[in-house]
Write a structure and sequence with these properties.
Layout (H helix, E strand, L loop, with lengths): L7 H19 L6 H8 L3 H8 L2 H26 L3 H11 L3 H12 L4 H22 L3 H19 L12 H7 L9
Length: 184
């Protein structure tokens, strides 16, 4: 059986996707480049040749996550440039638990100056995107992000989403109607 040869760009995308999977599970400190290499089906030296360090690989995974959220917001705004439209689009992303966990691990690793600067820049980019696409006020954007962070945490804890566990009284109250929403 012959192997399909990937272009350098396709191989890099494959490695970033594997990195999101690995880092979303083990976090920055708990994930090795060897784990990412195994997930991608390549050698660990190949990962280092492309990304040089685990930190650069983690930053690429964070960039991928932010880019995907940004593209999701932009596509929603093409249909309807309102906060509810963008919120619904983000809600659909919550079904991709790896992305939510990657965000949270990025926030947690922000103590490292290089990672923190990158994560803050990405978060700021999303804030600017929301403001530009919808024309919302800073207060409306703050409420939107506050609700988004709650949803991110609830999805990561499996309170809402396709892998949700049975709700406890506190989680049912906090989740409100979210468990009734459809996840893709």
């Amino acid at each position: 059986m012959s192997r399909i040869r990937l272009t350098a760009e396709e191989r890099q995308e494959q490695l970033v996707a594997a990195a999101v999977t690995a880092f979303s599970s083990g976090g920055y400190a708990g994930t090795t480049t060897d784990q990412v290499a195994r997930l991608a089906g390549v050698s660990q030296p190949y990962v280092i040749r492309l990304f040089r360090t685990k930190q650069e690989l983690f930053l690429a995974a964070m960039q991928h996550t932010v880019d995907l959220i940004d593209a999701t917001f932009r596509a929603a705004a093409d249909r309807d440039p309102s906060l509810p439209s963008l919120g619904h689009a983000y809600f659909e992303l919550l079904g991709r638990r790896e992305l939510m966990a990657m965000l949270l691990h990025g926030f947690a690793a922000s103590d490292d100056p290089a990672i923190g600067d990158h994560v803050r820049t990405g978060f700021g980019r999303l804030y600017d995107t929301i403001r530009a696409l919808t024309g919302c006020t800073p207060e409306e954007a703050r409420a939107f992000f506050g609700e988004g962070m709650l949803l991110t945490c609830l999805a990561s804890m499996r309170v809402i989403g396709p892998a949700a566990v049975p709700l406890q009284p506190w989680s049912a109250e906090l989740a409100g109607t979210y468990p009734d929403e459809k996840f893709d």
